[in-house]
Request: fold
Amino acid sequence: MTPNADHDPTGKGDRADATDATAPGSPDEHPAPTGTPSRSASDKGASDKAGESTLTVALALAANLGIAVAKIIAAVMTGSASMAAEAAHSVADTFNEVLLIVGLRRSERPADRAHPLGYGKERYIWTLLVAVAIFGMGGLFAFHQGYETLVGHPQEADPLAGYIVLGVSLVLESISWRQAFGQVRADARAERRPVIDHIRGTDDPTSVSVLLEDSAALAGLLIAFAGIGLHQLTGSALWDGLGSILIGVLLTAIALILGRINLNLLVGNQADPRVVQDVRDRLAAAPEVEWVVDIVTLTFGADQILVCARLDFRDDLGAADVERACVRMSHELRHAHEKINEVFLEPVPRDDPDLRRRVIGRYGIPLPQDSAGDPPPTSWK
Reply:
């Protein structure tokens, strides 16, 4: 982990600034930082996003099912390895959309006693299975077809049916791709970051999975066009076999990208750094807080963030004062960021030896030793 990714042990935002700030009783005191949505956007945004994801997956499912049937027929008629690879690709994509729909439904179940943080991470399991299916059902079959064509005796047939199916497939895949790209772009705009950064850092890989699948499908169709066309022009099946192998390479690359995205989410990513910074600033500005000792955030589902913070409170506060401050700060954080679902605040002394060892172990930077309540050294401000 990069030092200071979730925590700034320098205590930036010192007490001089905090005491001049208005008491954070008003939700407008700290506007949401640039690039982070406010809870004022309401829960309606989350439900609209879920509905849009379902629409994107359903449209891709319908398109891929029709395309898969047409490609299978064309592959049998033409004997083309590239067409057979594309048929396997579309069958895998159809199966994948079913997995995504199952993941969407199961991950939206509410929290219960056995799963107090809900089922949000189950979506990542199903999307990871999509990556496995892309490689297993699509990539390996494409490699096999390409190898068989290169070393065997490919069937020669009129490629007209293949051209027709590939043309229709391009139109249908383009419609599905446009829907998926539109959703991903809208989500990126809502987060105020570039599309590429959104794909890398998303906590909802469903629409990203559909976009990557459709992008691979469009590229695969162009490769199949080239393979069949060069086979027809040269009379050599080498091009058809190479086209099938290239499709296998393409599907393997997409599977690895999807696998990496979901692996990070399953292991546990921190929240958007902009959210983390704003949380730290809000906690540091609270008049009851002397020091933000440690902050840990965790993404545990699509649009779901867990915040745990260790705070050094003023020594003159009573237990009731600390309790009320914790409740107020928790409410303010969840109001400011609709993705924050759970907040845990722990009062701690910042000079505790065991705590210092934990922070050093996580970030590699020690906390200032300030048990007497004196201002921190200049290097820690």
Notes: The radius of gyration is 27 Å. The chain has two domains: 15-36+272-380, 42-267.
